[in-house]
Amino acid sequence: MSVLAGRTVLITGASSGVGRDLARSLAGAGARVVACARRRAMLDDLVAEIAGAGGNAFAQDCDVTDAAAIAAAFDAGEARYGPIDSVIANAGINHAGPAMKLEVTQLDAILSVNLRGAFLTAQEGARRMIAAGDASDAPRRILFVASILGLRPQAGAAVYSATKAGVVMLAKSLALELARHRISVNALCPGYMPTDIVDDWFESEGGKRQIAGWPRRRLMPVAELEAAVHYLLSAAAGSVTGTSLTVDDGQSLA
C-alpha cells in the first residue's frame, strides 16, 4: 500500500516549483490532493497531469493573503474529499536585492504571502482538524515549507529570510499548542533548488559563483524533498513535532 493511501492533503503554492512537484509526488504516494494557487490554468494542467498518471487531485483557486479564500479552499476540498488531515503551507514569494532598495510594497507582499499566508493556512487547517475531533484516525499533520535562509542570514534576502525564520518558529509554537489535539506541526528547510523564484540569480555570474562554493556544486533537485515530506506526513512520524528538518544537499555546510 502507498505510504499516503487514504490521506487528504491541501497544499498551497501548487501551480509551480516545489509545490507542483510535491503535489505530483503526494498523489503518486496515494494521497488525494487539494492543489491551491492563484494561477488556475497552471493548476488545471497539474491536475490533468496527475489524473493521467492515475492520481487524484482537485484544483482550487486560492490567494493565501485572503483569509476568506483560504476558508473557501478548505470548504471546496472537504466537499470533494471529506476532512483534510494534512496541510502543507508552501506558497512563497521573494523580491531579491539589497535591503536598502526594497520598496514598501515589496516588503508587504513578502510578509503577506510568506508569513501571514502561512499562518492563516495553518490556522484554518488546525481549526478544522480540531472540529473534526476523532471522526477519523488518520494522522493529522501541518507542514510549513521554510528554507535554510530561515536558519542563517543571506545578503540580498533580508525579509525573505526573516519570514522563513518566522515560519520555523510558527511550527515550534503551534506544535506546542496543538499537541493535545494529535496534530503534529513541523517545518521543512530546503536548500536552493532550480525554481522560478531563483532561476534568474543562478544564471548570473554571482549565482554561478555561489553554486561553485557548495560541497556538491549544484542546485539541489526538487525531487529530493519528496521522501522527507512523505515521512513527515506519514504515521511513522507520529512523535516528530515542533522540529525543523533541513534538506539542502549540504549547501548550509559551505
UniProtKB/TrEMBL annotation:
Domain (Ketoreductase): residue spans on this chain: 7-191
Keyword Oxidoreductase attributed: yes
Gene3D superfamilies per record: NAD(P)-binding Rossmann-like Domain (3.40.50.720)
Pfam family, one: adh_short
Top-level taxon in the UniProt lineage: Bacteria
PROSITE patterns reported in the protein's UniProt record: ADH_SHORT
Swiss-Prot/TrEMBL keywords: Oxidoreductase
Family stated for the protein in its record: Belongs to the short-chain dehydrogenases/reductases (SDR) family.
Protein name: SDR family oxidoreductase
Organism: Sphingomonas colocasiae
